Amino acid sequence: MYHHIRVAAYEPDPLHGPWREEMKVLRLGEDLHAELAGMHAEAAKNSVHPHRLPVRRLNSLLQAMAPGVIATGRNAGADGRLPWLYAREAVPPDVLAPVVGAWAAGMHREDDDSEGADFEERLRSRDPAETVRLPHWETEPVDLAESVLSAGGTAEPAARLYSLLPEWIAFRLAARTFRTGGTTLHFRVESSGDGARLVSWPPQRYERRRQTWYYSACLTITVHTVPFAPRFRVHVSTQVRRWATRLDVRPHQLGGTTVLLDAPLPWPEGPDRGHRLMVNTLGYDRRSKELAWRWHSPAPLVPELDVVRNYPRPEALFSDPERWINGSGDVAAGIVYHPSIGPHEVGPGLMPRERADLDAWVEEGLRPLLTRVPDLTRVSRSNTPSLLPRSDAGRVPGVRDAQLALQRRAALTRALNGRPLEIDVFWQSPETRAALLAELPKLIGLPAGQQVPSADGETWQWQCEGVDIRVRARPAGHLADALPTTRAPGRLRDVRLAEAIEGRCGLVADRADPLLGGAGVVITEIAGKERFAAVPDSDPKHALRIAWARQGRLTQFVNSPDDTDSALEHRARWTWLDAFRQLGAISPPAHRVGAGIPGDLQYAALWLVRHTRKGPTRCPVHRLVAVRVRPGDGPGVIEGWDAERAEWVPYPKLLLLLSQAREPAASGGKETGTEKLVDDSAAPGGSRPAARPGVEQDRQRETERQIRALLFQLRDRPTLLLADAGNLRQCWPGLRNGALDRDTLGFGAEPAQRHTLYGHDLRVLLVRDANARGEVAEWYAHDTEDGVGFAEGVWGTADTEGRVFASTASKPHTVAKLPKGLMKLVPTAQGRTAPGKTAWNPGQLEITVLGCLSEKALTDSGRAGDPSDRPAEWATLAHQLRYHDDYPPLARPLPLHWARLAGEYVLPVAGTK
After folding, report:
1. CA–CA separation, 541 vs 525, rounded Å?
2. How does DSSP classify residue 561?
3. Across 620-704, where does the E strand assignment appear?
4. CB 629 within 8 A of CB 587
5. Quick one: which of 224, 155, 231, 153 has its CA closest to 194?
6. Three-class SS state of 556
7. Compositionally biased, Low complexity: which spans (predicted)?
8. CA-CA distance, 719 to 48, in Å (whole number)?
9. Could you report the per-residue pLDDT of 354-388, keeping only the tens digit for each?
């Protein structure tokens, strides 16, 4: 058993002293910014923000083509006085002017480029009367460890460090080579909106099935904060970057895929030469009806700066990606692989040994400026709740399955509370129908002799110990067909989709039988979502969920056998298990934490559903979902909050109520896409387009009002409130790391108050995962003998007053076991097929005990002398809530898992009232 885990996170070393780097800084200046803004406003009259410069393409071009540029500042497109470029040394005007000139001319490419044609000459001008000359570089010391300490003790880095520091670190590491197993890897820098990446280049090769597959090591570098930590963190995560060598899609199916361009600098002088890959996006342009460079890609401008070399055109890259990844002349390009474009014989992920080797290389390269954060140690040996032992643990085969079946049937009996269960199965393949009918009685222990067949051969009925289930299986017919979609000029996309949904609702109403006092579930076999990808908005899944909810029935879907690789029996099993979850026939196992947890504790979980116009119904919505779990309370053990009626309702009823969300009728006008900021300068920790300030403030106030009302409804007994900080902080800013303070809750602009004001016995736990931005660091277990591997448990620092813990779960028993020392980047003779293996690593869940009954909290509440809480016990409880006999270890505690899944029913439809 491992007793320590190591996280791939680093912090400024306090023993090093001040960390200042002399950098060259360039600002656009008010005159040049005004000139460029005027050119953009003239060229983009229909832009949402005509006076905000679209500098993202220019920034990418400069980073790739101008030697020395390491980062670009934020919001320079909106304010010429802000820092625009950071560089190791000043970029000469002869280099900078052509790049800016090519970009400026590109703004007029589709219209009239006469205004941009002479812009480069004006930039080069030495005439003192010329107002658009390039500004002068300034030398500034930049503190790369600059931070402020929040009132709660959390170090928050200066805003510019979120982009500047990862780039600086990436270039420092790219100057070194990584040697392992007799192989040397060289790295290039790839800029990203939330940090920087290192990509090994040229790619590795793997021969399989008479074809060559390409892949690289990829390190992602990001800056983050940790609640109550006195120094900010730099996270370095490791992955396998796979490259596409063929695209099994048609051009019009390619929405947008990343392409990294490797091109030599037109100007050979300068630092950091050859260390960067240029980021572009290749996709199908529906206006021009052809493949094109999209989303601010700098690739279209490069040939104008370098007329000597041959650069790939979109259609040539699409038709023969392998040619370009191997290079044409001294230019190469790689299409980043995504499963939607076909299969790949290289498996994702790295095993712990290889991750540890890369982590050690990073640590060596960052000394003495950054130091590794301390290892975490176990805080509890109670890793799991009271689960049934597995059958292979010296037990008679089949005993565990029988016990699980009895548990499920008892839970279903409790949830139905005497009502019959009506199940409709709409199938497309006889195999799926047979698998579903065979799996149901096995899962809940219904004897075969209890089945009552029907004369029509479509209905099966079971009655056993208070459970009355009737299953009717019929062909799906047109119910599972793609939604009809039409493109009508001047009509909004969400309205057209709403009309298609209403049409499917009518078809469902015609086939629905009356539901007479029982609970209803509909299981529909549909094609995989890839089948509908060619025609946007044609997937019928969400329309069917809305339609059946109007008939009072819950819904579950199973993919056709031809559209999935998983075993049919396995998929049938999970279909039924999730149907039981929707019926509320499930409860958390008894915990094994100890006497410090109140016996009558209830769990409450909050989840915010956020859909933009790219959501499942093309209708934006923000809706708070709250779930309450009272173990041992009998029927209604899982409940949800009905905000309209201000009451707790059974979980199945909550799902049906959520499906009734409505949006006001859409106004007419020309169809436009999702509104985007032209500058694309993202705030730290996110890259979403900003909503109008008034709308965002209204959402925030309403969400916080609902949370306060919910807390009042939970005051009758000890409560553990669970919230996902990454999910909720957008509408509850008090959950930002910099706003947190121990044992307090903050709402709006009011000062934070002690959390016990919202509940005498309230505890508040926040969880956070990597959240697609590396917010929580990767990890691996290790011991004193250089062994590395996996470990499950709850981990923390030696600080007994610590409030932040790590929860790591075991690998699911269904995942194939691979040797922990498997090497994919440098395959050995014994493991020539290693690159083809999928390396699955459990993620770390960060648990912050924000509010508990600490000695100070008790004293402030007038309860000095009462036994105080141990934060580690509450973190252990949250960790144990990730386990259930029917599930592999979950990403979040069970109540949060159920609240998040309830969001699948939040499907507002435009044009209805």
Report:
1. 10
2. G
3. 621-629, 638-642, 647-650
4. yes
5. 224
6. strand
7. 681-694
8. 47
9. 999 999 999 999 999 999 999 999 999 888 999 99
Residues 6 or more apart whose Cβ sits within 8 Å of residue 335 = 243, 244, 247, 257, 258, 259, 282, 317, 321, 325
**Cα–Cα dist 303/313, whole Å:** 10
What phi and psi, each to the nearest 5 degrees, are found at residue 764? -125, 120
CB 38 within 8 A of CB 839: no
Q: How high is the pLDDT of residue 450?
A: 54
CA separation (Å) from 121 to 39, 315, 328, 605? 16, 33, 32, 62
> What pTM, to 2 d.p., does this model score?
0.91
Q: Is 98 helix (H, G, I), strand (E, B) or coil?
A: helix
Q: What is the pLDDT of residue 815?
A: 57
Instruction: Please tell me the distance from the alpha carbon of residue 127 to that of residue 286, in angstroms, as a whole number.
Output: 45
Contact 282, 254 (CB under 8 A): yes
Tokens, residue 565: 């690789």
Residue-wise DSSP of 151-216: TTS-EEE-TTHHHHHHHHHHHHHHTS-EEETTEEE-EEEEEETTEEEEEESSPEEEEETTEEEEEE
Residue with tokens 């009042």: 712
511-565 per-position pLDDT tens digit: 999 888 889 999 999 998 878 877 889 999 999 999 999 999 999 999 998 777 6
Amino acid at 224: H
Task: List the chain residues with pLDDT less than 50.
Answer: 110-116, 663-690, 912-913
Helices and strands (H and E) in the chain: how many: 21, 40
DSSP E strand boundaries for 1-146:
4-7, 9-12, 20-27, 69-72, 83-87, 138-143
The pLDDT value given to residue 669: 38
Output phi, psi for 115, to 5 deg: -70, -35
DSSP state of 722: E
Rounded Cα distance between 407 and 387, Å, is: 12
- Buried b or exposed e, range 470-509, using 16+ CB within 10 angstroms: bbbbeebeebbebbeeeeeeebbbbbbbbbbbbebbebbe
In terms of Cβ atoms closer than 10 Å to its own Cβ (0-12, 13-18, 19+), residue 850 is buried
DSSP state of 497: H
HEC profile of 294-306: ECCCCHHHHHHHC
For strands 719-724 and 762-768, give the pairing: parallel
3-state SS of 510-534 is: HHCCCCCCCEEEEEEEECCHHHHCC
